[in-house]
Amino acid sequence: MPVLEAEAEAPVHPKSHDRFQALLAKARSYEPVRVAVAHPCDRVSLESVIEAAKLRLIVPILVGPRDRIQEVAAQHGLDISAFETVDAPYSESAAAKAVELVRAGKADALMKGSLHTDELMSAVVRRETGLRTSRRISHCFVMDVPGHDQPLVITDAAINIAPDLKTKADIVQNAIGLVRALGTNEVRVAILSAMETVNPDVPSTIEAAALCKMADRGQITGAVLDGPLALDNAISPRAAEIKKIVSPVAGRANILVVPDLEAGNMLAKSLSFLADADAAGIVLGARVPVILTSRADNEVARLASCALALLLVAARRQAPAAIQ
Fold first, then answer.
1. Cβ contact 49:62 at 8 Å
2. Residue 314: inside a domain
3. d(C-alpha 90, C-alpha 115), whole Å
4. Were 220 and a residue from 93, 137, 215, 302 both cysteine, which residue would form a disulfide, CB within 3.0 to 4.6 Å?
């Protein structure tokens, strides 16, 4: 039975917020960012805003039905008296008004309150009155995985369902800008598939190879890319060594680009529910960062999402070209 005893004593990584705590500490070295919070009409939304404001991550502008917001705050004993409130009668109008505040230069980021993500993003992508840029909008999860030595960025797991090659190029460039804004100079992008060889029968492997060649030609900048890579040899040096993959990315990736939304969503949730990881969410590619939080997120993850927005805004002010 000694083998079983040894297996029983194998080290288990405790749940840790070390990487997110470091992220919060870095963000707090900057001035807080002005954030238009769309329709914060439940307890979780208001508590998130209050805690982020206490840490001086954000200066919130509450956008939604004023009476309802005040009623929720009073019901749960939450003090929002210090925050500006902009009245908007319902969720869609709150999203539109929050976007309007950004366009008028009165807010530097958006934050989702208790409305549906589609409602907020519809206002963001609206052609005439939204916040579009030349880049395709995409989403990143920044994962704090216990036992892993660095945050992992997974993209896109929330917006682009089945991105084509052009969209994937924007998804990659958006993620590179985020990681550079976090202060990481060595950005390593793994384009994931089910295998590490190009197979004409598996389209994601062909697109991975094309993205890497686009990086070679300067169409994607600011990082080193490799792919196709399977998940194991993207994040495990040992797996890369066994497969005899020699590259600056294999085993050391800090950005994981998934083939489609379904794969990304399952990967992120697998890390959350099986590896006790926390996930901060941010939308990129618009004129300003969009903070997406979930009612299922814990407080650290919600605050980390605000910290991401603050660091992106600060980085754009300091060196806009470096994170575009």
1. yes
2. yes
3. 9
4. 215
Whether residue 189 contacts residue 255, with contact meaning beta carbons closer than 8 Å, is answered with yes
Indicate if 157 and 266 belong to the same structural domain: yes
Same domain for 257 and 295, yes or no, is no
In which region does residue 251 sit, left (phi positive, over 0), alpha (psi from -120 to 50) or beta (all else)?
Answer: left
| Secondary structure class of 233 (helix, strand, coil) | helix
What pLDDT is attached to residue 1?
39
Residue 259 and residue 171 share a domain: yes
Residue 10 maps to a domain: no
The reply to whether 193 and 275 lie within a common domain is: yes
Strand partners, 224: 188
Backbone phi and psi for residue 291, each to the nearest 5 degrees, phi listed first: -85, 115
- Lookup: tokens for 229: 């890579």
Q: What values do phi and psi take at 312, rounded to 5?
A: -65, -45
- Note whether 149 and 265 are same-domain residues: yes
Please give the pLDDT value at position 12.
43
Cα 270 to Cα 21, 40, 158, distances in angstroms: 22, 29, 15
Query: 10 Å Cβ neighbour count for 71?
Result: 12
Is 106 inside any structural domain? yes
Cβ pair 116, 301 in contact under 8 A: no
Supply 156's token pair.
């896109």
Task: Answer yes or no: is 233 within a domain.
Answer: yes
- Which parts of the chain sit beneath pLDDT 50? 1-14
**What's the confidence (pLDDT) of residue 15?**
52
Q: What's the predicted TM-score (pTM) here?
A: 0.90
* Local structure of 284: helix, strand or coil: strand
Q: In 3D, which of 100, 94, 112, 107 has the Cα closest to residue 48?
A: 112
**Tokens 């066994």 — which residue?**
242
Neighbouring CB atoms inside 10 A of 128's CB total 5
The amino acid occupying position 123 is: A
User: Any idea what the CATH number is for the domain that residue 204 is in?
Assistant: 3.40.718.10
- Domain region containing 267: 142-281
pLDDT by residue (tens digit) across 7-26? 333 344 445 668 888 999 99
